[in-house]
Every structure is written in C-alpha cells, then in structure tokens.
Design goal:
By secondary structure, the chain is of the alpha+beta class. 32% of the residues lie in helices and 24% in strands. The strands form four sheets. Strands 4-5-10-6-7 form a five-stranded antiparallel sheet. A four-stranded antiparallel sheet has the order 11-12-13-14, with helices on both faces. It has a three-stranded parallel sheet with strand order 1-3-2, with no helix packed on it. The longest helix is centred in the last third of the chain and has 18 residues.
Amino acid sequence: MKNFNFKTPTNIKEATKLISSRATFLAGGMTLLPAMKLRLAAYSDLINIKKIKKLSGIKVSSKSLKIGSTTTHATVASSKEVVKSIPSLALLAGGIGDPQVRNRGTIGGSIANNDPAADYPSACLALNATIHTNKRKISADKFFVGMFETDLKKGELIESVEFEIPEKSAYSKFPNPASRYAIVGVYVAKLKKEVRVAITGVESFVFRCKKLEEALTGSFSSSSIDNINISSKGFNADIHASAEYRAHIIKVMTKKAVSNC
C-alpha cells in the first residue's frame, strides 16, 4: 500500500471541499482498503466520512424508509424500524458477508461501489429507491450504469438512500459459500403501483427483469412464472456457475422470493 493522507471532516461541506482527482471518500473501506493493499488503487488522500453525524441513522415515514449512507449493514439488519417497515431489507443486510464485514461495511459504500454481485443494488431497484446526494436526488433506475460504475460525479457524496415501503417483498440469494456474494440474487417487491424484480450477480451490474415483472403483475404467485423462458445471453459465466445455470437459478430464486412474500 502506498502512502496517503488520512483526513476526518466533521460535516459534508468540509468533506466535499477536500475531494480532488487523487482523493476519495472512505466509509467502511471493505472494498477500498483491500484494493489499495493490492495496489489496484492508489490515492493521495482518504477522506473519512464516518464522523459526519448527518450521514448515519434510519428514519421511517408512512411511505418510505430513509437510511443514512454510513449506516452499517449490521445496524440495518438489527433495526426495529427496518424490520417492521421492510423486513426483507433487514434480512438482506443480515446475509451480507461475515460479522466483520457487516459491522464495518456501509449501505452507501456498497451502492457507490456497485459490485456486480452486491446485494443492496437489487434492493434499490426493487424498492424504487431514491439516492440522495449532496447535490441532487437520483432514481435507482438511473443510478447503476455499469460494472463498478454509477451516475455519481466526482466529489458527489451519497447522504442517504430512501426506499419505497412495499406491500410485499422478499430477497432470495444463492450465495457464493466463501464470500457470501450473490451468484444469483433476486429481490421481488410488490409496490402500490407496480411489481419490481431486480437481479444481481448475473450480469455486469444489477438489472430489472421485465418478463418476470409482467408475469407477476398478472398474477402474484410463484406458478405464474412457470412458463417464462430466461435467456442466458450476456450472463456472467465463471468457475462458480455457467450462464445457463444462472438463468435457471433466477427462476428458482424468484419462486422462492415470491413464496416468502
């Protein structure tokens, strides 16, 4: 790991003033620090945002659940507010990595990193989330744009993630047994106006499956997707699963999620 300066601002304005082309924000560091240790990334300055109080916490209203960007996975998993309003989100958070990761990793860091197999991006898409930054509001449908790539601009900081509270929802994951990342993860949400199905671990970044959404809109039951054909074209293929196997597991996980709603 190369040398760097470690800075700890106490508010958002101070944090954004410190950003530069050779600096980056640090929250949990679950991806950033290993990348720096392996010299896959190098920065002159790490801007620690964990001390900014405005960026943590959970708030619930009648229509939405807002979670501060530096809120840890463990906090989301154990939050009474989350368990009551969107229990599937609490279960998702509790299934991320191991206790060390869950107690250090943050929701904002996860979606900003946008790993192809991360869990939270599927929750954002399925629950019609809005990502609040220090400059604007971004719909989840427009936020995830490529592998490890989002719509965030340089110096833009995620402040919170606001999820629509669904009528029903469930997340079902077929995990890598070592990392707990999703080989295939399917988040199904029945919202007031629509049904959303978000899939992670299958392509270069999270996506919605229109075929499954249309079938479940017609009949919200696991049997409604029996005759749906999922093409494996463009799907990931690696030592853990072929593209064809991932296509098969999508239907299996979707059925399981619908049954758990």
